[in-house]
Amino acid sequence: MVETFNSLMMGFSVAFQPQVLMYAFFGCIIGTLVGMMPGLGPLAGISLLLPATFGLNPIIAIVLLSGVYYGAMYGGSTTSILMRIPGEAASVMTCVDGYAMTQQGRAGPALAIAAIGSFVAGTLGVIGLMLLAPTLADFALRFGPPEYTALLLMGLFVLAYMSGGSMLKTLAMAVFGLLLGMIGIDVMSGYTRFSFGITELGDGVGIVPVAVGLFGISEILMTAGQADPPKVQQPTLRQLVPTASDLRQSVGPIARGSLLGFMIGIIPGSAHIISSFVSYGMERRLSKTPERFGQGAIEGVAGPESANNAAATGAFVPMLALGIPTGPVTAVMLAAIMVHGILPGPMLIQQQPDLFWGFVASMYVGNVVLLVLNLPMVGLFVNLLRIPYAYLYPCILAFCIVGCYSVSNSTMDVWIMLVMGVVGYVLRKFGFDLAPVALGLVLGPMLELSLRQSLAMSGGDYAIFLQRPIAVTMLVLAVVLLFFAVKPLIFKGKDWRSKVGLDEPADS
Amino acid sequence: MNKRYLMAALLLFCGAAHAQEVFPSRPLSMVVPFPPGGVADVTGRPTAAALEKVLKQPVTIANRPGAGGAVGNAAVANARPDGYTVLMALSSITVIPEADKLFNRKPAYTLDQLAPIALVSADPMILVVHPSLPVKTVKDVIALAKKQPGELSFSSSGVYGALHMPMEMFLHAAQLKMRHVPTTGGGPAITQLLGGHVTMTAGGPAAITSHVKAGKLRTIVTWGAERHPNYREVPTFKEQGYDIVYYIWAGMFAPAGTPEPVMKVLRDAVRQAVNDAEFKAQMARVNSPVNYLDAPDFAKYVDTDAKRLATVVKAIGRVQ
């Protein structure tokens, strides 16, 4: 403990060097701006900035990039809440209740809670990273394909709690998402599926263009279809600040979201994307008033926002402790260290203590910077809503297209986004919820891959799922979740859905 | 009146500029068909920086990732052959059209659409096993695999990918059967091995170094034609009696049909660039040995590699 404290102090002495501090600050600002650009998320942000770090020293490079990563996570929630445009997969759930709050004139509290939740989750995550990194990393390695499959199955069963509409519509949308996920090269065999001979579709349909299209573009189209333009909002200062009851309602979701996000985040693979979905489903399940979700429930912002920020920190555990990437973002960050001749690996913490501890300390600093940066900015951001829609929406549309294109210089992504915008518009007109599409698209390919990897490992024997303790535990949990999900279908009328009249009773 | 003179002057000027245009007279674009941070990217960026010094024109990197490199490769294959668009490709460039053929797909590009400029780097793969596996040499691996046919497993970065091909070469040469667990990249493939979910994989020297040093992975043999300078103790397949060689290489291409004088400028520029001190230092830092070959030799190199890999792809056939 004393040793950890001393190391951390050494880390702070690195992080407080004026140059390092300046780059941390700089990274946070760039990140926030990138995150606010529709369609540009953390991955795009750090990929675009990576080449610029080649000339810096490695500590500064990683501090700068992690600042961008964090900042983009914070900034992503801003556009989700204000304009219903997710910057990345993790903020899809924030769009639902966050934007509903904006429409009720409560954008201020939503933004503030998102910032506070992210700060708490980020800070708790760094503490976890600092104290438990080596221990947790070894645990994370035990997550092979079978464990991953079980985890994703649990994620799939959360679907039941995701959407406010009828179960049938929710499942239909989830299947649509899963089908979209089928497009592209099959990793196991090399076959290209449903790509119509278009090379760009070989990697499948990206979640970001789909999410921006389904949520953002469809919203623009919906607004354009209204007879009267929506009233421009003029929030007063009091409306910007979360009330005492807002804060009280958010404590639980933030705490649960942080823990859940961190645990999911440390697992190698891209599972951290599902942390915000799982958090949302969990909060709705635990809530006494689940019908408020989707109508502007602050828990629906607090939980997922905390979860995705904690997962972002959790992702650094295997990266720093073992030198293995947990996802595309950490892969880019590893490259940033490697170009400086530092080999990331199990010895990194011992061999490069000032890099590790400087990085940890700079994350504490970065979180504080972001909170200080974001809370006062809430007022400024909310004022964007004062811009008349006739000017605001064309600008957003242009930003969406530019942002979407710049991620991988692909016009195909722009087309996907636009087509999904129209699809989203039609689906919303028919009263379908869109969040399950996003979850389906994220889960589908991952679930398929890990299931088939497991079977490749066992030579086609399904018993592999029952031979591994972690996998069995999670499968049992998944079955319990499934039971709770179908309970209302078996015991009629016990579900909140019937209480709010969303589902017709089965016997009518 | 004034306007007309101006127009005439402009036209004249353009004509003159066109007549004696020296390549390059505007910025070049180097397409990297993989995302930032990958092997192609960390090789491409220092190369571009060194080329800028020689050509006195900016060389910008355009990452065009997708479909295992096919998107970026195809983009350059179909670009205007004026030398302003070049490609930093990896060895997978020869495998992709073969795999397309295998599946009766319309190929995204063919190799004859691209003209080789120069080989920049080449890195041999090394066979690594989980330390819990009771093997020290290739002979041990083969003996164990023969004793438990189809029980040992290896991870790869994807079917027909850079880690799958060398393993298949080995399995065919030694007539072994193993389970193949493809993942989505070189990083995940090593992660699976570290966790003990598979028993072995082919790894690039840079990617495995820290794990080998920490005792988390054990080296067995290398696909290199000779021993790797950083792994003097690791024997080659050739020494062990198997004639199999596999390198992940990075090389520059231009669209086929690029005029010969332009190609010459590009080739000379790369020759100077690879001798640039800063370039060498940068490549040493990412543990990627510079391995320069000029166009004629590089063309032969690509040809040999393409033939060798085509045989392997055909031998693997369609994965069921």
Question: How is this structure best described in words?
Answer:
The complex is a heterodimer of chains A (508) and B (320). By secondary structure, chain A is mostly helical. Chain A has one domain (2-499). In chain A, 72% of the residues lie in helices and 1% in strands. Chain A contains 23 helices and 2 strands. Chain A has a two-stranded antiparallel ribbon with strand order 1-2. In chain A, strand 1 (184-185) and strand 2 (192-193) form a beta hairpin. In chain A, helix 4 (58-83) packs parallel to helix 17 and helix 11 (244-265) packs across helix 12. In chain A, 60% of the residues are buried. Mean pLDDT of chain A is 86; it is low at 503-508. With 320 residues, chain B is α/β, with parallel strands linked by helices. Chain B has 2 domains: 28-122 and 248-316, D-Maltodextrin-Binding Protein, domain 2; 126-222, Periplasmic binding protein-like II (D-Maltodextrin-Binding Protein, domain 2, 3-Layer(aba) Sandwich), CATH 3.40.190. Helix content of chain B is 42%, strand content 19%. Chain B is built from 11 helices and 11 strands. Chain B has helices at residues 2-19, 39-55, 70-77, 95-102, 138-147, 164-174, 186-194, 205-213, 260-274, 277-285, 295-316; strands at residues 28-32, 59-63, 85-90, 114-124, 126-129, 153-156, 179-182, 200-203, 218-222, 247-255, 290-294. In chain B, the strands form 2 sheets. In chain B, strands 2-1-3-10-4-11 form a 6-stranded mixed beta sheet, with helices on both faces. Chain B has a 5-stranded mixed beta sheet with strand order 7-6-8-5-9. In chain B, helix 6 (164-174) links the parallel strand 6 and strand 7 (179-182). In chain B, helix 2 packs antiparallel against helix 10 (277-285). Classes of the chains: A mainly alpha (508), B alpha/beta (320). The interface between A and B is large, with 53 and 62 residues.
Number of strands of chain A: 2
| Spatial ordering of strands, largest sheet of chain B | 2-1-3-10-4-11
Number of strands of chain B: 11
Estimated helix fraction of chain B: 40-55%
In terms of DSSP E residues, the strand content of chain A is under 5%
Largest beta sheet of chain B, briefly?
A: 6 strands, mixed
Structural class by secondary-structure content of chain B: alpha/beta
Average pLDDT of chain A works out at 86
Kindly provide the name of the CATH class of the largest domain in chain B.
Alpha Beta
Spell the H/E element sequence of chain B: HEHEHEHEEHEHEHEHEEHHEH
Alpha-carbon distance between the two ends of chain B: 75 Å
| SS class of chain A | mainly alpha
Runs of chain A in which pLDDT lies below 50 for 5 or more consecutive residues are 503-508
